[in-house]
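If your schedule permits, I should be very grateful for your opinion on a structural question. The matter concerns a single protein, recorded as an amino acid sequence and a row of backbone structure tokens. Could you please explain, in whatever detail you think fit, how the structure tokens follow from the sequence? I set the record out below, with my sincere thanks for your time.

——
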Amino acid sequence: MTHNGEDTAPAGRPEVTGLRLAADAQKQQDPPEPRTPDLPHDRSQAILEAAKRIGALLKRAGHPFALAGSVAVYAHGGSRYLQHDADFCVLPDDAEAVAATLREAGLAVRTPPEDWLLKTTCHGQNVDIIFALAHQPVAKDMLDRAHVLPVDSVLMPVLSPTDLIRSLISAFSEHYCDFGSVLPVARAVREKVDWDEVRVTCGDQPMPAAFLFLLERLNVIAPQERQP
């Protein structure tokens, strides 16, 4: 109220239009962020996704192959905790054709210094295309013995448990002898392995023989009956 009794509206703050906070202005100036593709929840799932894609490509192209390594152990009922790469066995004569199939699918294929495998990357994970296991060329009869199993919903041939164990322990030498990494594998597939066959084919080598003896002492496998 003024001195002469007339009412007046209280003086308000002048309305300011077009005022934006710095953060709001920045949001309008910056382009929208691209949508991040759905990623696997963990590395084990990423390795499985890579194995599934490579297996599907090889199946579609008709290449004889078999899944190997830790993903093969998983397919046979072993641990899902995968912290390495995905491995596939192919025939030596098919290596170039397999590489061409992968390149046609947009995957880069690398030739490492080792002369027994090729390498590629899928879903950010390393994939080895192996044509020699434990210094022996991958043979057709080995691929014929493979079991067709689901690998996280994708059916593909997987190395038989006997060939899988044999390939792992045949690689032991004085320079590489990691019993600790193979022991869980032997425990996981022990009931599916022909241990007599393993002993016949590689049990006379010092390091594999020592590993087999360790499995006996740990009651993972039955002791071999030794002649007096």
In short: The beta strands are 65-68, 86-90, 109-110, 117-122, 125-130, 132-133, 136-137, 147-151, 154-158. The chain has nine helices and nine strands. The longest strand covers residues 117-122. Residues 1-37 have pLDDT under 50 and may be disordered.
